[in-house]
Every structure is written in structure tokens, then in C-alpha cells.
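Structure, all two chains, one model.
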Amino acid sequence: MWLGLDLVEEADASTLRRLFTIWTDDAAALMSGRGPLADTEPEMAAVTAGLTITFGVGPGVFDLTGITADRPGWLRPLPAFPSIDQLEERWRGTDLVVQICADSPLTVAHAQWVLLKDARSLARIVWCQKGFREAVGTEVPGRSMRNLFGQVDGTVNPAAGQDDPVVWMCASAPDWLRGGTSMVLRRIAMNLSTWEQADSVSRELALGRTQATGAPLTGQVEHDVPDLQATDAIGLPVIDTFSHVRRSMPHEHGGVDRFLRRPYTYDEGPSAHALSDAGLLFVAFQADLERQFLPVQRRLAEADRLNAWTTPVGSAVYAIPRGVREGEVLAEGLWR
Amino acid sequence: MWLGLDLVEEADASTLRRLFTIWTDDAAALMSGRGPLADTEPEMAAVTAGLTITFGVGPGVFDLTGITADRPGWLRPLPAFPSIDQLEERWRGTDLVVQICADSPLTVAHAQWVLLKDARSLARIVWCQKGFREAVGTEVPGRSMRNLFGQVDGTVNPAAGQDDPVVWMCASAPDWLRGGTSMVLRRIAMNLSTWEQADSVSRELALGRTQATGAPLTGQVEHDVPDLQATDAIGLPVIDTFSHVRRSMPHEHGGVDRFLRRPYTYDEGPSAHALSDAGLLFVAFQADLERQFLPVQRRLAEADRLNAWTTPVGSAVYAIPRGVREGEVLAEGLWR
């Protein structure tokens, strides 16, 4: 669950301090299975179900509160991608984001309620976006999740623990962000009705991978490295020039443009107007948004066969302060 | 996931036959881990995650199609309960319902898409209602689920396998429903904001159980039978006269009024208008709606302290035909 909030209009540095002080306590209590102070249903905190809560700061915080902490240059809306974007105001970037993840929807619902009600005099909700991955126990070991196009999604990712500089900011970041990261949240509508009409050849050409296993068209299994040089009998590239795999491959560009993809599926269900309202909450974490994320995003906007079936309808950028130790407050460098 | 659909206006018996012939094939394939005929993402059917699909027939089917099968007297909207109901047209009863349950949201989303697109020329969607229980692996063994009030919910239920006549219709039912059941689906909004203001004494008085364990106020553990005769030091009943437990207890009325409760939580998340839009999809199955379900519903509407915090906003009744063997079609007695 992603909650997008705006600070109240009269917010200043002390508003931020109070909000993050409360949220730090809440998150620590909820994640350790205790109900926070003001929790009237502490029993519901007992099942943590792997709960994690991640807080982010959007550009508006700097515009609004007059804090003097260093503002990173990238902390602003992404550049427009007019060839693909149809952004809707209701999914706009917000002053703050809270990402709540757990293996059980009940745990998420409770945490969400506690965090919202504790923030209500300091910030107001703009949107909530709910996503899911395959439930624990139903994943296929070693295989990335499937999205609603049936595609294996999120294969190319840094290895956990080995590629820390890809995700975490180092000494060159503003003080308050050192050890933190940046988050891009894009809501990408997927048109299941037109996708349904695409045959498997078109689908696999567009992606550059097979639907069945997620293997690149030049390989056998999902994690085989795509061979972008391979050609077929008549000399055409096996992995098409405008396929998603080729356009998004970091290896083609020296490998700086890597980042951590953590996509979730959203499905608002059918309505009288449409048989589906579904897609991807594309979430990316990276130390350097401009050098890592943006080049890939630009290549995809420029030409990616999958764009025929997908439409970005929401876009937001947040700075994610590092986690805290006992006694610290999340994001505290921001107002000090 | 519950999908409420209406038949197309020109529907007749053959529309029903075609629809249920397709849905029978789809459900059999999906539940056995194969993609149905028209499934363009058959890989997504491979993980069944305990998928079950249940189909129901609403009153409108008889009004619309001119079928001559026996119409059960109870297959109509519930009587109005003006003391509690604030029913919204958008959650009205529909001609058909499809209930899709699985341990993974991805499995549900795929099944939903397949069933909807295969029905699109025969029926149109009116609403979808999404609910959840505690995820597999996060349940507390032996304890019923918690709802968003923190209450242990659904304790008083017939034992699986031992109380079949409570749920399944026998020889006295219309032919096409023999071996089937009836479903009541009530959408009950729960006001988390006012509930939050109730102290634990008021909460437990209203329910008649402790919030911590779900034990009746006269007992130690959830499944202890409430002692409705017990009084406190000054002679007042320990389980209040207007508590939910006492009003809903079947034991008080000879035990005919038992049925299978299978509640799910819904949570549409916060919006700019309200900090929460959440509640219960109250689902009840019973062989005889009028003798089993209605007496309890009437007692609760008449006086149940929990009504102060809850509001029924949707209500629907469906007949659920029995499951089928190879070669049969769901509900086929309906048009024969």
C-alpha cells in the first residue's frame, strides 16, 4: 500500500519533526509486533507478517516548509515523456509517501490506519495505491513475479547485498539522505483488452522474452543474459531493436544505468465502463536517479514496443531517508 | 473477489445455457491449473493457490429470461431493515454473482479476467467487491479471523462436515437447487473513526466477547460457549441483553437459526473525504434463508449495540447451485 500525503498548508520544520517523531515510533512498534501508544487494536499488531514501512519525502516539503536542508537536484517531478505519458492529476506526486508492505492484507490495513490517524492533524491524504505480488507460498522459486500480461517481470535487478551502491546513497548525497535512496513510483495502466488480441509472436517480439518462462529469446531460462548480438537466419536481431528487453538493458550502456525494480500489480477490478482497470505500480530505487533511472526511462519512452499496450497515468519522485537506530527519528537531518 | 453481473437485456434460457457452459469449462480448467480454451496467459493458471469459484443466481434471472424452473420464494431481496440499512444502489443485488477465492491475489485477478471476458457478450458487470482474510501462513491456529475493529469474527459456525444440513439444500428444494445453498452478501461499513473513540469496556459490552482473545465475557477462550444466564455481583447479565453475541446466538432459539458465516474484510483505503472506507463483506450460506438467516438478521436489526458503529450499505441474495461432475454444466437444471 502506498499512501500519498500532503502536509497541512501551515506546515513548517516543526510539523515535519512532530510527524516523523510519531511515525518513527509507530513504525518501530508495528514492525516489532507491538501496538503503538495510541493503537486501540494492539492485538492486530501481533501478527507482523514481515511488515516493512518506508517513508519518503517529495519535492513539496522543500517548497512548503522553508527548511534549509540541502535539496537534491533530482527531487522534482520526472521530465515529461509526452510520447507515452497520460498523467492524471489524481496520481500526482505528493509531499510525502508511506509504503507499507506485508505478507497479509490485514497487517497492511491495520498499519495504514494507525499511521494515517496519527498523522491526521499534520498531513492529509491525497491518494492511496494498492498493489500486490504473488502471495507468500505461491511464488515459483527462482522465478520473478508475473504481471497481468502474463510476463515474468523484474528479472534484471542488482543482487541483494552485492550491489549496495546501486541503491544506497553515499557520501556525495546531502547529509540527511546519506544511506538513503530515491524512489520513483509510476502507475502504468496495462490494457488487457488490446493485449488479449496480440498473438504470442507479437508479444514475445515486444518483450524480447518468452511468456512461458521469461527466458530471453536468445536463452533457455529466465536469468540467461540476453544476447543482443544474436541474429536469425536472415540476419535480423533475435531480440528486436525496439523490444523492451533491449531498450531497458543496462549492459548496453556501460552498466551505470542499473537500479532496483520492485514492481507490484494493481487491479481496481472491472466497472460498468471497462472490463479492467489494472496495471503496474512500477517502483524503482536507485542512488542516483538522473544517471541510473532516467536514461532507461528515456530509452523506453523513445521506443519500446510494449508502449502500444501500456500508459503511464501516475508519476512521483521521493527521497527515502535511511532507516534509524533506537533513539533516532526518521529523516531528522531534514529539519536540524 | 465478488463480481455482480446483470444478464444482457435480451437474455433468455439459451443465454443462461451458453454462459454457464462457458463458465463451467473455465472454472474447471482454472481450478485444475490449466488455462481455459481462450486463455492467452495460460501460465498464470498454473499456480492455483487453492482457487475456488462459486456461481450464484439472483432473482432477476427469473424475471428476465422466462425460464420455467421453480423459483424459490426466498430468492428475492431481503426485507428492508430501516433501523440499520443505508443501502446504496451501487451495491444492489444482481442477476448473477461470481465469488473467486484463492490464497494469492494474482490467481484471483487472472481468474476474474478470464471469467469476465468470456462472459462479455452475455452479461455485464455491475460491481466488484474485493475482500480479504488473514493470509495463509499468518493466521493464528484455532482462532477465527480478526476484522478491522480488532474483533475475532466468525466464531459461531457449524463444524465442517458435521453440519451439512445447515448449509446444503435437500430434497425439499427445487430440483435445480438440490445439493446447493443460498448466499447472502451484505456489505457492512464499519466506522473506524467512531470505533476508535470507544473504550475497551464499551467495546466488549457491545460485542459480548473480549477483544484480546474473542472469548465470551463468561469464558476463557474463543470457543467457550457463552453463558447467557451468568450475572455479575449486582445481578446484571455479564453478556449484555443488547450485545452482539446474545442477539446473534442460535442457542437461544432452539438452534434452527444457524448458518455458515464466512466474512471478509474490505478496505478501499483512505480518500480526501474520509480517513477510511472499510468494513465487512458479510457472507452467509444456509439451506433455508428464511428460517435460518432471517431470524438472526431481524434480532440484530432490532437491537445490537454494534449497530452504533456499523451500517449495511449493500445487500444481495443468490441461489448457489451445487458443484458438477465431469460432463455436467453448472445450474443446468435451471433451463431444462
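The longest strand of chain A covers residues 310-320.
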